[in-house]
Amino acid sequence: MDVVVVYETHYGQTREIASAIADGAREAGADVTVVGVEDATAQQVDGADLLVVGGPTHMLGMSRPWSRGKAHPQEIGTGGEIDDGVREWLEDLPAAGGGQRAAAFDTRLPSALAGGAAHGVARALRRHGFELVADPEGFVVEEAEGPLRAGEEDRARAWGAALTGKVTAAVR
Ligand SMILES: Cc1cc2nc3c(=O)[nH]c(=O)nc-3n(C[C@H](O)[C@H](O)[C@H](O)COP(=O)(O)O)c2cc1C
């Protein structure tokens, strides 16, 4: 049972959630690769039983080059853009092989108006032929730069374990 977790992060919060999801998947018995979107390759995804993809919510949905730039004003200047993100990575992803499953997550602020990137991630995964095994899931940060809300890493670990259990039962 091979699980690949791909994440985008700017302040490290989505990486924390991705690694908690990966821990949960490992506890449920999977071989897990967790990788940032700038390093994730189609070969890593090829053959994975479960692909989990997540990123930060920017302007209610998936980030864009200019919104990523806003998270890094010191490094690249206020008008700068960053090209690597889950949106572009998903666009370039080859179609899923038969029976490949997937799930989508995001990080977001604690507001009813926060929106969520995971819905867009889930739509893109479905378009690529992945069978979604869970509803898109949001994990909460207290402020844009973090920290994560207390308990969110535990919730992510449990979510990763539950996804893995579901797919393991399905492939048996
Ligand atoms: C330009 C920008 C726009 C944002 N827009 C939203 C938003 O619409 N809704 C929301 O919940 N959070 C928003 N946030 C907060 C991010 O969700 C938060 O920074 C992210 O979850 C942190 O994850 P990261 O450390 O992995 O980047 C925004 C952050 C930035 C930098």
CATH class: Alpha Beta
Q: What is the distance, rounded to the nearest whole angstrom, between the alpha carbons of the first and last residues?
A: 10 Å
Poorly predicted spans: none
Distinct small molecules bound, one entry per kind: flavin mononucleotide
CATH architecture call: 3-Layer(aba) Sandwich
What structural class do the secondary elements suggest? Answer: alpha/beta
- The tally of domains stands at 1
Give the averaged pLDDT, no decimals. Answer: 96
CATH superfamily: Flavodoxin domain
Q: Remind me, CATH topology?
A: Rossmann fold
Tell me the strand percentage band. 15-25%
The helix tally amounts to: 7
Radius of gyration, in angstroms, nearest whole number: 15 Å
| Percent in helix | 25-40%
| Major sheet | 7 strands, mixed
Q: What's the oligomerization state?
A: single chain
Describe the structure in your own words.
By secondary structure, the chain is of the alpha/beta class. The chain has a single domain, classed as Flavodoxin domain (Rossmann fold). 38% of the residues lie in helices and 22% in strands. It contains seven helices and seven strands. It has helices at 13-27, 42-45, 65-70, 73-76, 86-92, 118-127, 152-171, and strands at 2-7, 31-36, 50-58, 61-62, 101-108, 131-132, 137-140. Strands 1, 2, 3, 4, 5, 6 and 7 form a seven-stranded mixed sheet that branches. Strand 3 (50-58) and strand 4 form a beta hairpin. Helix 1 (13-27) crosses helix 7 (152-171). The longest helix is centred in the C-terminal third of the chain and has 20 residues, at 152-171. It is globular, with a radius of gyration of 15 Å. The N and C termini lie close together (10 Å). Bound molecules: flavin mononucleotide. The site of flavin mononucleotide has 22 residues, from helix 1, strand 3, helix 3 and strand 5.
